[in-house]
Write a structure and sequence with these properties.
It comes from Chlorobium phaeobacteroides (strain DSM 266 / SMG 266 / 2430). With about 160 residues, the protein is mainly alpha-helical. It is built from six helices and two strands, in the order αββααααα. The chain is about 75% helix and about 0% strand. β1 and β2 form a beta hairpin.
Length: about 160
């Protein structure tokens, strides 16, 4: 496990940079794809809740430095890693690849809704109602992120989750 951590840190930085400078410009249904949340869900499912929270803190610090909301970003990303960590699969478990994929999808949905709730409470520049922001936009973002996670799982993560 410790051999994979440095590679995961590099992937986290690349994902944060991709989120900040690439995916934040891509708007679909007034939502942006949150690649960092998907990455944190994958890390939390593979490595566990504590590592997911640590990576979430690092991602929140890095993104918050560039966006100007460091405290809120740190809180949101740490909670996303924490909540997604509830779906972690222990390395010595006998879970099948299908069960691990289901846990990953559940982790993505839980992390997105946890992040949306905290963001809706912390900052609301458009003055949107809380329920609209959390449930409607969160639901659309969850569906969009699940589609991306499905594609990633199908082509890239299948081998990583099977180990």
């Amino acid at each position: 496990m410790t051999k994979k951590i440095p590679i995961t840190i590099v992937l986290l930085v690349i994902t944060c940079l991709l989120q900040l400078f690439g995916l934040s410009r891509l708007v679909i249904f007034s939502l942006t794809v949150d690649a960092v949340t998907i990455f944190l869900a994958v890390v939390s499912v593979i490595f566990g809740q504590r590592i997911g929270m640590t990576f979430g803190f690092g991602a929140g610090f890095f993104i918050g430095f560039f966006t100007g909301h460091p405290g809120l970003e740190i809180l949101v990303r740490t909670m996303e890693g924490f909540v997604a960590g509830y779906c972690s699969v222990p390395p010595d478990s006998h879970a099948t690849s299908k069960q691990k994929s289901r846990k990953l999808y559940l982790a993505v949905v839980l992390a997105i809704f946890a992040g949306n709730i905290i963001f809706a409470l912390g900052i609301n520049p458009l003055a949107l109602p809380f329920g609209y922001r959390v449930f409607l936009l969160g639901g659309v973002e969850a569906i969009l992120s699940l589609a991306i996670t499905f594609v990633l799982n199908r082509f890239f993560l299948k081998k990583l989750l099977s180990e």
